[in-house]
Each structure stands twice: as C-alpha cells, then as structure tokens.
Specification:
The chain is of the alpha/beta class and 321 residues long. The chain is built from 10 helices and 13 strands. It folds into 2 domains: 3-176 and 219-243, NAD(P)-binding Rossmann-like Domain (Rossmann fold, 3-Layer(aba) Sandwich); 181-218 and 247-280 and 299-316, UDP-galactose 4-epimerase, domain 1 (Alpha-Beta Complex), CATH 3.90.25. Helix 1 (12-23) crosses helix 7. Bound molecules: nicotinamide-adenine-dinucleotide. Keywords: NAD.
Length: 321
C-alpha cells in the first residue's frame, strides 16, 4: 500500500486531504504541531512534530513514498501583513528542511502548496483584473513576506527535482474555503470571517467590511482543492499550476451571497484602515484544465452554504448565538 505523508494535517486543507486520501485507500501519516481543532483525524498515524527542526522532518518522511507538504505559518491578509518576519523565518526553515529530508529519505513525489500571493502586485491593481496565468509570476513582485517565500520555495522545488530527481509538484492555491477552517481569532480568511460576522448579526444589522468592498477575488471550495491536488500528483507535470476557481466576485457580492444564505438583510460598514491585499485577483484556469483534464466545479453558493452552516453551528456550540 502506498504510504503518504501529509504535513499540516492538523490544519484546514491538510485535515480534508487526509480524509480524502484515506477514502482512496492509502496509508496516511499526518504531521503537525497541533491536532485538528474541529474533528478527529482519519490518518493511520498522527505525529505531533515541529517541522522547523530537520530531525523531525527526517522522522516524518521516513518510509514515505509521497509527501503532500502543507505545513506553514499562515493566515488571512490581516495576519500575513503583520507577521512577516515570523512567516519568512518559519516557513523557509520548514520548507527547506522538508525538501532536504524528502530527498535524504528517497521520497518519490513531493507536492508543495504555493499561493496566488506569488503573483506580482502590478498585475493586480484594478478590480476588473485579467485572470492570472502561471507565466505572469515573472518579473516577480509578490506579496511582501509570505508571497516572496512561496515563490522562492517554488524555485527550490525545481532545484531538488533537477539536481536530485525528487519529483516535485507545485500548486498555487487561490482562496480555498470550506467547513473545518479557522473562522475567528485573526488567522481566518475573508469567506470564514464574513460567514462569522453574518451569523453573529441580527437581521438589518450592519457588519464591518475591510476596505471599500469593491476589491475582487475568486474562491475555491475545499472539495475541489483536494481533488485538484490529488490529480496533479498523478500527473507528470512539474511546473507551478493554478488551483482555484475563475469566477471573479467583489467582497460586497460575497457578503450579499452569505446574507442571502443566512436569510438576513445585512448592511455594510466599510473600514478603510484595514488591510485588503491586492485590488483584484482571479485565476486563469486554461493550463489547469489542459494538464488535469478537469476544473473545479463546486459553485460558490453551494460551498458557502456548507461553510456558513458549519460556522453557525460552531457559534451555537460556543453559545455566541
Ligand atoms: P492552516 O493554517 O489551517 O494549516 C497549516 C498547518 O501547518 C497548521 O495546522 C499549523 O499548525 C501547521 N504548522 C505550522 N507550523 C508548523 C510547524 N513548525 N511544524 C508542523 N506544522 C506546522 O492553513 P491551510 O489553509 O490549511 O493551508 C495549507 C497550505 O496551503 C499552507 O502552506 C498555505 O500557505 C497554503 N495556502 C493556503 C491557501 C488558502 O486559501 N487556505 C491559499 C494559498 C496557499
């Protein structure tokens, strides 16, 4: 039976990926510094390890044929704009140690989770942005801190493939969302934050929106995300690949969809002092559909309904509503 390591298995995407891989019949080892917060893991083995340390990366990759490497210090825009030093230090150390350990322990395939934050600021300065193609990454001007680190490690993945024959794969996620993700505390991303605010609001209340609400993004549901990662790992494609939806919407529209799901009339109060990231961002999925012969298909409305219902349930359990 193929043995697979998932790092970051205590986090949002890693937890869902473990469940998916178990359903496919693999033997799975999960590693993280924390256990999954909201549900038990399905992993055959779960090790609590700090992957900043090379000895822990060597232990994690021992006897593994494939690695899905997701562990990272990360969060939404409010977090990554205010923790740049911690992010670049911790993620560089984790990623380089993981690559080196995978090569040392003769892992065959290594998937790295990069981000749309590697794309240059100058291609994302209007809300009606042209969707980003993989080749748009250069000349580089990524998101400061988090984005530069991801872009550099994409290159390191290529070096390990070219010099050592480690088959590396790279996905650039575009705003993944769904149940079992962080929804409060400062690390949450916009869909989860908006679902929380709408769930806590009474009908006719106003909720705080970061920026003027005209900034645009695309959002991809977690089920599509894990399928896309899995399909890439079955392929022979070793360059970075977008993994996201290509439906562009404004934050205002996102709030309206969530309010409709909640059955509430919600007004918006704009806070222009809060970080909003790039002005517009969308994924060009031409290469994705060509390489994987597949595209994400879960609609935003369906994904948001599942996410909203789950977050509302958590808030009820916490007796906040
Ligand atoms: P997450 O924060 O839920 O999961 C990351 C996990 O890594 C956490 O459980 C954390 O405890 C773990 N981790 C951090 N430091 C560690 C260490 N020293 N040793 C071991 N584990 C450690 O985030 P996520 O949304 O599941 O993201 C997974 C990956 O995808 C990350 O690499 C992230 O940068 C990337 N990504 C995510 C998105 C998104 O929209 N969620 C977008 C772009 C890229």
């Amino acid at each position: 039976m193929t043995k697979i390591l998932v790092t970051g298995a205590g986090g949002f995407i890693g937890h869902h990926l473990v469940t998916f891989l178990k359903q496919k019949g693999y033997w799975v080892r999960g590693v993280d510094i924390k256990k999954p917060e909201f549900a038990d893991t399905d992993a055959d083995e779960f090790q609590l390890l700090d992957l900043k340390k090379i000895e822990n990366c060597l232990r994690a990759t021992q006897d593994m044929e494939q690695v899905f490497h997701l562990a990272a210090n990360m969060g939404g825009i409010g977090f990554i704009e205010t923790h740049k030093a911690d992010i670049v230090f911790e993620n560089t150390v984790i990623d380089m140690h993981m690559l080196h350990a995978a090569k040392t322990n003769k892992v065959q395939k290594f998937l790295y989770t990069s981000s749309a934050c590697i794309y240059p600021a100058y291609k994302q300065d209007t809300p009606d942005i042209v969707p980003l193609k993989e080749e748009d990454a250069y000349p580089a001007l990524p998101e400061d801190g988090y984005g530069w680190e991801k872009l550099y490690i994409e290159r390191a993945c290529r070096h390990y493939r070219e010099d050592y024959g480690l088959k590396t794969y790279m996905v650039r996620f575009h705003n993944i969302f769904g149940p079992l993700g962080t929804y409060d505390g400062g690390r949450e991303k916009s869909p989860a934050a908006i679902c929380r605010k709408v769930a806590l609001a009474k009908t006719q209340d106003e909720i705080e929106v970061w920026g003027d609400g005209q900034q645009t993004r695309s959002y991809c549901y977690i089920e599509d995300c894990v399928v896309g990662m899995y399909k890439l790992m079955q392929s022979d494609y070793h360059e970075p690949l977008n993994l996201g939806q290509d439906r562009l919407i404004t934050i205002n529209e996102l709030v309206d969809i969530v309010a409709k799901i909640a059955g509430k009339k919600i007004a918006k109060k704009y806070d222009l002092s809060k970080p909003q990231g790039v002005r517009g961002r969308n994924s060009d999925n031409t290469l994705l559909s060509q390489i994987l012969n597949w595209s994400p298909s879960v609609t935003l409305e369906v994904g948001l309904e599942a996410t909203y219902n789950w977050i509302e349930e958590q808030l009820r359990k916490e007796k906040r509503i």
